[in-house]
Specification:
seven-stranded parallel beta sheet; three-stranded mixed beta sheet; alpha/beta
Length: 297
């Protein structure tokens, strides 16, 4: 297939591009820069210049493809709600563009959007109006398109997508520990974070596009790791005290990140493994984190 990938030069998107090319697909990779275009061409992909704020440029990429994988997102948290609303517009526009032809559109969401008293499963679609995170706009867009018959699939990623080049939540925790002089967890630290290696996640995106059936998938290699275990590795690697803090202290210590540090988000990938014949092959988060690469300045 000829597959258009948004966010093709990003941490996850670049792994998706490599995965697709290795499987024999042709890739059109979205980029905003000449440097990004050069990296895509070197990998064997075609570069397509586009921007999330320019729907026409994105739709020109969609028109050239047999399938679309959407991994792009603006992670400027100072305008988080605005970027989430824009992502919804982008997804809806792409969904409308592929709807008549039945071409698959695979989009990115997160397991952390949904609170669950147990283990979050792929079939669970909570009441969107009760979700406090603006990023739920992604799921709202997907649900609407699915109900109108568009071939849209959702890949939900866990709070930690790890591997070389990670600049997500775990590196943020490392930076906070360095700044505060302690590696902290809240209470007993038994709240859970699911995780996946970026290379394993990339295979889920590829397999979802190849299957071409509207569905929801969980790219979770590990259902849920105690947050305390993550904080312990960080503290040991940095030579810092590993401490428990109260919920009241969490807001001051973690700042805007306090909600993520407290979330209990076990997420199963059992159905995903069955329907996509997917099994994670890369190291788990704790093994991956416990390497010098995560702590090099």
């Amino acid at each position: 297939m000829r597959i258009f990938v948004t966010g093709a030069t990003g941490f996850i998107g670049s792994a998706v591009v490599d995965e697709l090319l290795a499987a024999g697909h042709s890739v059109i990779g979205m980029t905003r820069s000449e440097a990004g275009a050069a990296r895509l061409r070197a990998a064997g992909a075609t570069a397509h210049f586009a921007d999330l704020d320019d729907l026409d440029s994105i739709l020109r990429g969609v028109q050239q493809a047999d399938a679309v994988i959407h991994t792009a997102f603006n992670h400027d948290f100072s305008k988080f709600a605005e970027h989430c609303a824009n992502d919804r517009q982008v997804i809806e526009a792409m969904g409308e563009a592929v709807a008549a032809s039945g071409r698959p559109l695979v989009i990115t969401s997160g397991t952390g959007l949904f609170a669950s008293s147990g283990v979050l499963t792929e079939e669970l679609v909570p009441d969107m109006d009760t979700v406090p995170f603006p990023r739920v706009a992604t799921e709202v867009a997907a649900k609407g398109l699915m109900e109108r018959g568009a071939n849209v699939s959702v890949v939900r990623l866990p709070p930690s997508v790890h591997g070389d080049g990670d600049h997500g939540f775990v590196p943020m925790l490392i930076a906070m520990a360095r700044e505060k002089g302690v590696s902290a967890y809240i209470g007993e630290g038994l709240n859970h974070w699911p995780a996946v290696h970026r290379l394993d996640a990339a295979r889920v995106f590829r397999l979802a596009a190849e299957r071409g059936v509207a569905a929801r998938y969980h790219a979770t290699g590990e259902e849920g790791l105690p947050f305390r275990d993550i904080a312990t590795v960080i503290g040991r690697r940095l030579g810092l005290p590993i401490v428990s803090i109260t919920s009241e202290q969490a807001a001051e210590h973690f700042g805007w990140f306090a909600g993520f540090a407290a979330v209990d988000n076990r997420a199963s990938s059992q159905l995903t493994r069955q329907v996509l014949n997917w099994e994670p092959k890369q190291p788990g988060l704790i093994v991956d984190l416990d390497r010098p690469q995560y702590f090099a300045q």
